[in-house]
Amino acid sequence: xxxxxxxxxxxxxxxxxxxxxxxxxxxxxxxxxxxxxxxxxxxxxxxxxxxxxxxxxxxxxxxxxxxxxxxxxxxxxxxxxxxxxxxxxxxxxxxxxxxxxxxxxxxxxxxxxxxxxxxxxxxxxxxxxxxxxxxxxxxxxxxxxxxxxxxxxxxxxxxxxxxxxxxxxxxxxxxxxxxxxxxxxxxxxxxxxxxxxxxxxxxxxxxxxxxxxxxxxxxxxx
Length: 222
What we know:
about 220 residues, six-stranded mixed beta sheet
């Protein structure tokens, strides 16, 4: 007598809310109070992930520091998350000073020119509420995948800067090349205001709005 043949089965995963192990313990504790299915692990891209949704949390001071020091890590994170997930979201945590030209320059680039979905939270408690609401509405009881390997596109430092410049409205491939010819380390803090101002004057076809964002001052001052 032959044994019963087992039918082929497809493994279905009811997705939990995956939290990167480097995230603050107090946010994890707040989320656990919501009685959500949570799994803390190292995530290659994103801090809070479920299915095709990934959220990268950035405290406002860390965000400013990561951009003003000339470190490309923040921009690389956004690009990698966009390549890895269908719904990438940036969550900016902390009070926003709308008179801070650096802060507004970053937000303008991220939201308007890079067209990145962005949400804001007041503090860690507010962050936990945002994440819990998102997961409750779009993740609870749904099937999906575990966080996949990060999709990273190979690029040279110059190619990354070239792509970042084109996030700014009015800067195309040719203008980005001209800017890098004049200022190879455009995103480095080693350049002072007057140096960048003088060098950008040599770039033909660069709009006042684009120069305003690159220098961080009013267009009329350039």
